[in-house]
Structure formats: structure tokens, C-alpha cells
Amino acid sequence: MNKNQQHRNANEVLVKVENLSKKFCKDLKAGLWYGAKDLLSNVSSNTHARELRPKEFWAVKDVSFELRRGECLGLIGHNGAGKSTLLKILNGLINPDAGKVTIKGRVGSLIELGAGFNPILSGRENIYNNGAIIGLTRQEIDSKLEEIIDFAEIHEFIDMPVQHYSSGMKVRLGFAVAAQMKPDVLIIDEVLAVGDVGFRAKCFNVMSELAKSCAIIFVSHSMPLIGRICTTGILLKNGVIVEHGDINQVIYEYSIQYENKYEKVVGEMTPTIYKVKLSKDVIDYDEDLTIYFSFQFPKDFTKVVLHYSVIDQEMKTVYQSYSISDGKFYEIINGELKASFTIKNVDLTNGKYFINIGVIKNNFNGKNICRVDGAASFVVGGSKYNSFGSIVKRTVWNN
Amino acid sequence: MPLETRIYQKENNISFLKLLKASLKDVYGSRFLAKQLTIRDIKARYRQSYFGFLWAFIMPLTTAFIWVFLNGTGTVKLSDTGIPYPVYAFSGTLIWSIITGAINAPLSSTKSAKGIMSKINFPKEALILSGIYKLLFDSSIKIVVLLAFVIIYGVGFHWSLLWFPVALLGVILFGVTIGLFITPLGMLYNDISKLITMGLGFVMYVTPVVYAIPKTGLMKTIMSYNPLTALILTSRDVVVGTTTGFFNYFIIIGLLCIPLLFFGLVFYRISIPVIVERA
Question: Domain ABC transporter: where (chain A) (predicted)?
């Protein structure tokens, strides 16, 4: 019986969002005026359904989901998709215009680290200021003080005014205090983007530890991070849920609708005309990909080296190859370079990728004649190997 | 232990009493936060200042000095105040500065927390409470200076002085109640705080701050009805041991302010989400 109870508790729904909508105003003056009117209608408990007034739009529209203890929901979407608005409603900072949010337990947020810091006061004093604002009691802070200072790794500077801290130190101190929260529901908005690698790893560990015992709602533009932490995901577009479910599927949907063409040409010579074509725009991870292209130059070269690199969504180079490594050279005749190359087994995880193509003179240290960044893009989909890494490696599992 | 459940939805049809109860619970629950914010602001204020506490009473002191000068040189002719004029003027400007401080406290402490209000959910009542704490701190410095005046000018000690904390409480209660009602709109429009500053500048001259109520005339009528008159005169009475007959009015104001304060707290509470969204 008791065990049964515990089991149910571990799976209880902590966050329930039903048909939530929120509107915003595009115009400051009109927004203030609506605000003044809302102040009055608040008093008279206006229960009419809210409709859009002039210059208003739905920042969040008809959003519903549930979140249980132990689950982590990734909120994904372009800038202005309504993620932060949704978080503010969940955090109880602003009221919805329609729908309902039910949250059980203590809510913690990692949205602004170091809130309430006063720059003139010392780190130690500010631990108390920040701790009080995020809802810790005096006793909690007193007993955790050493732990906080340890975590932030700023022993020798703890009595120095915070205004002389580096921005990294401030964030470390802020996170160290926030890490003492014992929330049931944790709301995280892009806070881990700052700080050095070692500290990010530490934060990640804290979050993984918290994730076991609470429900997390996580907003980030870093897909690898979302993929590692989250169990389910929601893709928002213009305030509406367009995809909701398994996090890998949601990330995939997000990546293929990502329209950022970052085409850019660098090098000492700009091709007047270039054409790039792929054998397929959507491929499987174990398929080959052939890239056909032709460049038009004002000058001829007899022996040039081709190279290409595959770039992921995070603008990270996944792999790169030079034709010279395989002893292959090309020629630019009558100003034209026309060639193709085939990538054997792209071996990539699901997502969208860009290809950079470059032409260099015939040695490794040669300068780029030209390099076309983002010359083409392709999508890898349908892989059964969901992986947090960039590469899918086929593995033989021996006995 | 059952988990606390929060529900956020559009309708504000929760009863007044429930809101009031929640508000008072947050006032009580946010004592540590309020104290922390107060310590933070006071420390920061004085750590980066050379003259420190002097700033708490230098403004009312200079205003009083100007009037003492005007009166002493015969530039303006004021009727007899019954006590040494410097004591009258300084007690007036001091109590006046406490009243204006109380009226401005909710708005200014809410404004200073605008940045974190849109990021973190904490009991906003702590801002009001910390505003009052800061006010009490400043007032206590002013009162020490006032007592020094009283002794220097030989007004002497009166047992009625023991009532001063009660009078001060009435003054702060009145000011904070008004402040709570202007805060929501004041957060949206900067005009409000400018209007308040300007308005109070006028009101000071229809309040017996630096001169007594005239015996007859329109000014006498205005001043007699002005609730601030009762606050100033009664507070001054208990310090210098006079009676001006505004005690009953003072009590009525104090009693009226208690339910109004509750309305103010509820109005503040339901206005916060609108402020966070718009301001």
C-alpha cells in the first residue's frame, strides 16, 4: 500500500496547462492604456472572454500539456515563438487571458541568476539577498553558506564587492545559490549559455540531479543540451504548438523548418556564377550523398584542391575533407570548375546540415581561392539511432 | 504532506477576503525577504556615501532653516505658533517629510524591483514591507534630531512623547495606504509620480507645516478639513506637549485607514500581473 502510494507520487502530474492563451500589444502607448483599463476591470472581476483589441496579437494561443514528476519538457521555437511568455505564465508572473494552469508544489526558476544582487555589497551579503528573493529562508542560507561558496569557487573573493566580480563569477555565485532550491517544478530559460566549460558541466550535473525529483520545463536554443536533458518536447511557432511528443522528433521537426540560409562567399576570388545540386535533399544516415557543382572564375588554374565541410545546426563542423588527401586535383579551364564528390555513408544524426565547399591552390597551406559557406543544405531523417552526438556509428554488438 | 497547488487563470473572481488573506499571509511570510531588502538598500546607500545619515534629515532641515530665516528677518510675517518657531518649523518639515516618504514608499520600492519582478516570482508584499522598514529607519534618525531640537530650545520633556510612536504609525499608515492606491497606475505611467511630487508641493502650503492655521478665512476652512493637518498637528502636539484639538480627527483618519489599507493591499496584489506585463 505504502509502496503503491509512493509510486503514484513519483508519477503525479505537477504541471497541467489547459488551452492557455495570452495576448500582447505591439504598441507601447496602447499597451499602457489597455493596462490601465485592465487595472480597473480587475477590480470589477471582468469575466468576459477576452478578444483581441487593436494592435494586439496572440503571443501564446491554445497551448495544453501535462508534465509529471521526473519528466523534463523542452520548449523549442524561434525567437518570438512564445516560449518566454509561456514560462512567465507558468511562473505566475503574468496572468493568462484564457485557459488555466495548475501547478503543484514549490516552483523554482533559473531565469535570472543573481537577482537582487547589489553591486556595492560583498558576495557574502549578496548570497543572502539573492537567496531571500528566490525563496530560501534565513536558516537554509545560513546552513548552506559554505556549500554555496564552495560551489561557486570564489573563496578568496567572497568578501569583495560584487561589482568587481567578473561576469562569470557573478553567474557562478548566482547559480550556486539557485542550486540550493528544492523545487518540485523547475523552470529554466537559457541560463547555461554563460560561464566556462567546467562550470557548465557542473551546472549540468546539478540539473540532472534535480531532474530526477522534479518536473522541469527547459527553454534553450542548444539542441544537443535539450536532447540530453529532456524527455519530451514542444515546438512552438507563433504561439501555437506545432509538434508535441518525443524530444528527438521535436528537435528534428525544429531543425528542418529552420530556414536560416547563411550563404557566404569568402576567399580572394569570388565565383561569378555558382550552382550546387545534391543527389537527394533528404537522406538516411547510411546513404551516400553526391554533391554536383559548377563555379565560374575570372581566371584559370591548372591544379587546385577541393574541400568541403559539413556543418550542423550549432554551426559546428562535423567533418571536413580535402581532395589532396586522396591525391585528387582539379583544373579550372576557361574559368569554369565543374565537379562532383560523393560522401560515403553520411553517418549523421537526424537534423539539418549545411555544406561548405572550398577551392584552394595545390598545397595544404594554400590560400582559399574561394570558399562558399552554406552552399547547400540537406536533412538527415528517419534514423532509428537517436543519438545526442553528431555522428551515428554503426556498431556490432558482440556476445 | 500535500503539495501546495497554485492555479493561474484569467478570472479574478476570487473573493476579496481570500485575496486579503493571501496578501496578509505574504506580508507575514515575507518578513525575512523584506528585512534583507531593507538591509541591502540601507547598507548600499550609506556605504557609498561620505555624509551618510546626514542626508536623512538635511532636506527638511534646510526647508525649516529657510522659513526660520524668512520669519526671523521679518520677510514674511507669521502668526504666533505657541512654541519657539525653529522647533515648530523643524518638527513640521520633519513630520511632513515622513508623510511624503510614506506616500512615495510603495511606488518607489516597487519601481526599484521592476527588473526582477518580470523574472522571478517572489511575494511582492515584501517590497511594501521593506519600504515601510526603510521609512522607519529614516524616521528614527529624524526623530533623534527632532528631540535634540526640542531639548536645545528648552521646550522640555513631556510624557505625551510616549505617544509619538503611535502618532508616527498613524502617519505611516495614512501615507502607505495612499501610496498603495497610486502605485499600480504609477508603475504604468511616469506622469503619476511627477504629479504626486507636484501635488504634495502645493498641499504643503495648505497644511500647518511651517505656519499655524490662521484664525479666520478660507485658509482656515481648507486647513481644518485637510486630513494632513490632523496628522501633522497631532504628531507635533505629542512631541512638544501642546493641544490643538485635532486628536479626534486623527483617530478617525487612523480608523478609516485600516480598511482602506486592506483594500489597497488587495488592489496592489491583483494589479501586479498587469504591471509586470505592461510596465
Answer: 15-263
- Mark the ranges of chain A whose per-residue pLDDT is less than 50: 1-8
Looking up cell 511651517, which residue turns up?
Answer: B210
Reported as type and span, the H/E element at residue A255 is: helix A247-256
Is position A375 within any domain?
yes
Count of other CB atoms within 10 angstroms of residue B230: 25
Give the relative orientation of helices B247-278 and B227-240 as an angle to the nearest 10 degrees: 120
* Chain B partners within 8 Å of A90 (Cβ): 8
CA proximity to A267, closest of A376, A333, A356: A356
Closest to A332 measured CA to CA, from A298, A357, A375, A291: A298
pLDDT of residue B45: 86
Q: Of A151, A177, A152, give the one whose Cα is nearest residue A165.
A: A152
Q: What CATH number does the domain containing A276 carry? A: 2.70.50.60
Q: How many CB pairs under 8 A join A and B?
A: 141
For cell 469575466, what's the residue? A47
- The reply to whether residue B271 touches residue A96, judged by beta carbons under 8 angstroms, is no
B28 touches chain A (CB under 8 A): no
Beta-carbon contacts of A43 under 8 Å, excluding residues fewer than 6 positions away, are B267, B270
Each residue's pLDDT tens digit, A69-80: 989 999 998 888
Does residue A351 sit within a domain? yes
Rounded CA separation A242/A244 (Å): 7
Closest C-alpha to A88, from B4, B39, B278: B278
Q: Is residue A245 part of a domain?
A: no
The pLDDT assigned to A8 comes to: 46
Tell me which residue of A301, A347, A339, A302 sits closest to A323, measured CA to CA.
A339
- For the stretch B118-134, pLDDT in tens is 889 999 999 999 999 99
Where are the domains positioned within chain B?
16-278
The nearest CA of chain A is from the CA of B182 a distance in Å of 12
Q: Do the domain assignments include residue A274?
A: yes
Q: How many domains would you assign to chain A?
A: 1
Nine-digit cell at B48? 557609498
User: Angle at the Cα of B99 (from B94 to B101), degrees rounded to 5?
Assistant: 90
Q: What are the angstrom distances between the C-alpha of A6 and each of A2, A71, A291, B42, B127?
A: 6, 16, 57, 48, 39
Give the chain A residue nearest B275 (alpha carbons). A35
Distances (CA, A) of B153 to A135, A193, B147: 49, 64, 10
